[in-house]
Every structure is written in structure tokens, then in C-alpha cells.
Model the fold of this input.
Amino acid sequence: MPCLAIRRFVLTFFEFGCIINNRTDSFGCGEEAIGIRFYENFVQGVFCFHKSSMGHDRFSPHLHPNTEILIKHGNSRLTFCSMQEPREIDGPCILIHPPYTLHRIYAEPDQTYDRHVVYFGEKIMEMFDPSLFPLNTFSSCSTTVIRCADQELEELLPLLGALESEATAAAEKSLILALLVVRISRKARPENTIVTAAEHSYLPAVVQYIVEHADQKISLPDLASRFFVNRDKLNVDFRKYLNITVHQFVMETRIARAKCFLLESKSVKETAELCGFDNVSYFMTAFKNMVGIPPAQYAKAPQLVD
Done:
């Protein structure tokens, strides 16, 4: 991944950047705040955790560069939104969110939300033969939902426990993940699996390109040419998908990266260059407009805004 600074960050979970003000109270992904979350220690590796809570609405719609497997236990009701209208799911299930796919999870406060969550990077997916996934479970560009019985999920618990354990070596985790992915894929059958329709299936690739090339010159005409789409259509689709323009997303991504570099004690000038700004003064103005304080002040006291 291009932003190595993010992977070296000390927090296991560090949410940064691209938070746009809420525009409505509805649940739909395209009408809420957008968040980009990058996770440091497992961008290219594997990370797993187990958590149980009453209800869940902690995060705005978000996307990240990792594949996410969410294994929901129990009979509670869950609402999720990917690139289409919200869906309600009762009972145990497995949700698979591909990289850079917008999604949000919601559970009512009176619902027990018990889940295992696994994240892993793109290098891990290169280990697998696509023929392992006959129903497109791990190669889709949108969320896949697999409904399961409790006993089917219980078969996965030993693997999840090993992935969650700090005693398991990184090389072992890759092998355990491979077995987990194969077992999940075998549980996917036409009658119990939904691959959510992706109205604008090329957009996750556009988002990924912007994130990975935020330090370079990015323009709407160049993006349209690269992804073989009309410039106006790209702009309309992107705004519908993320509720912001391409230019806004580029700027938000650059400022998000800038915050990481500033906290690593890089100078304002160096940070501007690393984040694709040719003019330091323009960077300082943009940073203050979007963050609320100048970059030099943020480097000394990020708690003022974060």
C-alpha cells in the first residue's frame, strides 16, 4: 500500500479522514457521512476480533482497502447497506465486504450483536484460485451475504480463535485464513447466498485508484479515460455512490494522509509534497479549511480536532 505511514501508526484502529457532514437522517449509504478507515497492522496481513454488544451504530458508512468477513452469531436482526437499499437479516449469517466497497452495519439497541470480524489485505487473496468461489463470494465488487445455521458457524470457531490469538504466527494465520475462506465458500449455495447488485460496479476500482495515487496528479478526464467511462457519467455516478464529487474525495483523501504524515513529525512542506500538493500555501489553506486548524498546529495538538 502506498501510505506506509498509516501502517506504522501505533493504534490498532485508527480512523482517519474523509468524514463529510451528515446530510440526512436516513440509513442509506449514499446519504450519510463517508469515512475511510485504514487499519495499520493488517493492511497486508490478517486481523481478527470477537465482540458482543447491544445494538450497533458506531460508524458512518465507510470503506477500506481490506476484505472484511463479518460472521454474525445468534438470531438477532441486522441491517446492512452496501451499494443499494438497506437489507434486514435475521439469524446467523456471513457478510463479505470487498475492498473499497461502501458499507454500513446497524443493529437496534435492543438487539444483541455478537460477531467475529476478519480483515485481510489484497496480497492474501492472491493465494487463492478463483475457481474456489463458484458463487463469486470473494471476487465480487459488492457485498455477499451467506445465511447459515448456528451449527455451521460453530464449525468455524476454532479457526476464528486461532486467527484472533496473538500467539499465532503471521505465516500460520495466512494458512488458517485460507482454510476459513474455503470453508465459507463451501457454505455458499444458490438458495442461501445473495450477491448484492452493484449498480456502479466500477466505482470501487476508481476509489482504490484515487487512494493509491493521491500523491499524484488526478483529474476527472484522466479518471474517465482510465476506466473507459464518460466524464459526466463518472461524476454523476461517483456523487451518487459517495455523496461527494471526485475532486472533493481526492482532497479529503490527501488531507487524511497529511494528518498521518504530520503526526510522524514530517514538516509541512514535506507533507504537502507527499500528499500531491504542488503549492505549500494552497495545502495550508486547504488543510485549515477542512480540518479547522493549520497543519503545524495539528501536528502539535491533534486532539483539538480528532
Remarks:
- The first helix runs from residue 4 to 7.
